C-alpha cells in the first residue's frame, strides 16, 4: 500500500463545535474577557503626539486591502486589535505606522491562519518600503509591548454565536453548517473589518 500526501489549494476548516455554541457560558466568558483587550483610553489624546486619527484610518484601510487580496481573513480584526493596543502604550512616529500595521498582520496571520503570510510577501504588499529583517525586528518589539498576550478576543469571535441566535431559516444561515451560512459569516466578517477601520468603533 502506498501513502500519498496530496496538497490542495482549498482550505479545509473544522466545523463549529455545537458544545461551545449552545452553551451561553462561553458567550458570557467571551464578553468578560474582551474587556481586557481593549485600549483603556483614547491614545490620540494621551499617548500619540505624531499620529492622528486619519493616519490610523489610512493604515487600517490598507490592511483591509491586503486582507482582501489573501485567501483568509480571520486574523485581520486581531491585527487591528494588536495595532490599537500597541498605539495605546507606545508613542510611535508616523513613518513607522505602516511597518507597525504590517507586523500586526504578520503576528495575527501566524496565530489564526492555516497558511500564514510570509514576511517577504508582506514586504511586497508595502511596495518594498520595509525589509523582511526590519519586520522581524519589530515583531519582537510588538510582542514585548503586548506582553506576548496575543490570544485576544475580537468581534470575530462572536460571529458564530450571533448567527446561532438570529432567527434565520436553515437555508439562510440558521444552523451550524451550509454554504449560505458560510456566505453570511463571510459578509459579517467583512462588515467587522470595515468597522475596524474607524476609530469610533473601538
UniProtKB/TrEMBL annotation:
Entry annotated with the keyword Iron: no
Record flagged with keyword Nucleotide-binding: no
Transmembrane segments: none
Location of the Cyclin-like domain: 61-144
Superkingdom of the source species: Eukaryota
Keywords: Cyclin
Similarity field: Belongs to the cyclin family.
Protein name: Cyclin-like domain-containing protein
Organism per entry: Sinocyclocheilus anshuiensis
Organism taxonomic ancestry: Eukaryota, Metazoa, Chordata, Craniata, Vertebrata
